TrEMBL record:
Protein name: SDR family NAD(P)-dependent oxidoreductase
UniProt keyword terms in alphabetical order: Oxidoreductase
Domain of life: Bacteria
A molecular-function term among this protein's GO annotations: oxidoreductase activity
Provenance organism: Actinomadura rubrobrunea
CDD domains for the chain: SDR_c
InterPro entries: NAD(P)-bd_dom_sf (IPR036291), Sc_DH/Rdtase_CS (IPR020904), SDR_fam (IPR002347)
Length: 287
């Protein structure tokens, strides 16, 4: 399974209907991978799959809610039965909940933990198990460090930086980084690579679909418009992040900050945690 070249690889991408998931699916397809584009929005997944099929070896869509354990079990079993064990899995599906911690309700916490953390856990557990079983069945272990397969978990620059008004999102993304680091250590002996990718502000639709707590309808509309405007001004397209994801798989990178702000907050969190805590008190630019 030639991960570095991607020719003949089978790649599963969640949240593939738009934004970063779509860009990643197409980047992998361009390099010869067959793509399973999974998304809660089936028509969006089908559009991505159709484009991937034009670019690469093939594309197929699947509708799934990554927060639903039973649905993910069925999805993983379907991929194996209809195709085979995937070589690349990109756990990308995510949502954003913004607003004061004390006004973030249990329903909001359950939604974001369900998608942003449990969705990653389900993808790692189910497809990681399939990859591990495949490697154990081989007469000899594959030599290159990630030829047993590769799992990419999309975290965020928010994993490095506490920020007022974004406790729920930051918590789940920090957990994704630690999960990825721990899983990488556990699967290394099976030549299965694991990478956490931490993009900064990227021009996707995440702000448009975000939940803003502690505001009335007019306030939520203004916050959504403000966040979308800021992301447009940053003008960092998801295709650039997708290129970094592809490179991270080929080079088996453990942790990949993407964008100037991601590199900056990671460096600041390591070199001056006190300064990072002070910066966290600044009003959230996405709120």
């Amino acid at each position: 399974m030639p991960i570095a070249q991607f020719d003949g690889a089978l790649a599963v991408v969640t949240g593939a209907g738009r934004g970063l998931g779509r860009a990643t699916a197409l980047a992998l397809a361009e390099r010869g991978a067959t793509v399973v584009a999974a998304d809660l929005d089936r028509p969006a997944a089908e559009r991505t799959a159709a484009q991937a099929a034009k670019l690469g070896a093939g594309g197929v869509a699947y509708e799934v809610d990554v927060s639903d354990a039973a649905a993910m079990e069925r999805f993983a079993a379907w991929v194996r039965a209809e195709h085979r064990v995937p070589d690349i899995v990109v756990n990308n599906a995510g949502i954003l909940v913004n607003g004061p911690f004390l006004e973030t309700g249990l329903d909001d916490w359950e939604r974001i933990v369900g998608v942003d953390l449990w969705g990653v856990i389900h993808g790692c557990r189910l497809f990681g198990r399939q990859m591990a079983e495949r490697v154990r069945a081989l007469p000899v272990r594959p030599e290159p460090p990630n030829f047993g397969g590769h799992i990419v978990n999309i975290a965020s620059a928010a994993a490095f930086a506490p920020w007022r008004g974004q406790a729920a999102y930051n918590t789940t993304k920090a957990a994704v980084v630690m999960l990825s680091e721990s899983l990488r250590a556990e699967l290394a002996g099976l030549r299965i690579g694991v990478t956490a990718v931490c993009p900064g502000f990227t021009t996707t639709g995440i702000a448009q679909a975000a939940t803003f707590v502690g505001l009335d309808e007019a306030g939520r509309r203004r916050a959504r418009e403000r966040a979308q405007k800021m992301l447009r001004m940053r003008n960092y397209p998801p295709e650039k992040v997708a290129e970094r994801i592809v490179a991270a798989i080929a080079k088996n990178k453990p942790l990949v900050p993407v964008g100037a702000e991601s590199h900056l907050v990671r460096a600041l969190s390591r070199l001056s945690p006190g300064a990072m805590r002070l910066l966290a008190r600044v009003p959230n630019p996405l709120a």
